[in-house]
Amino acid sequence: MPSHKSAVKRMKTSQKKYARNLIIRSGLKTLLKKVDLLISSNKADQAKVVVHQAMSKFDKAASQGVVHKRNASRHKSRLAKKLKKLQAA
Question: Please, are residues 75 and 36 in contact by the beta-carbon 8 Å criterion?
Answer without folding.
Answer: no
